[in-house]
Amino acid sequence: MIIIFLFYALIILFIFNTMTEKFCAKLEMNAKKQANVFRVTNIMILILLVSSYVSVLNVMM
């Protein structure tokens, strides 16, 4: 189960990082602001992934 969820998490992180990169390129952000956007986006996505994993574990037990 954990291997499937890790694979899913990597795909989700890749998709969101790709979309964030396109967003930053479209707005022509400087490097410092772009790094902050990536950090916030990745932290939020990781929080969502961890909470969904915990939820799935609670349902299975």
Mean pLDDT across the residues is: 94
Number of helices: 2
> Could you say how many structural domains there are in total?
1
Strand portion, in percent? under 5%
Q: What is the H-and-E element order?
A: HH
Fraction of residues in H or I helices: over 70%
Describe the structure.
Keywords: Membrane, Transmembrane, Transmembrane helix. This protein has 61 residues and is mainly alpha-helical. It has one domain. It contains 2 helices and no strands. Helix 1 runs antiparallel to helix 2. The protein is elongated and about 45 Å long. It starts with a helix and ends with a helix.
Notable characteristics:
61 residues, 2 helices
Topology:
Elements (H helix, E strand, L loop, with lengths): L1 H26 L3 H30 L1
Helix pairs in contact: 1-2
Task: Describe, in short, the structure shown.
This protein has 61 residues and is mainly alpha-helical. It is built from two helices and no strands. Helix 1 (2-27) runs antiparallel to helix 2 (31-60).
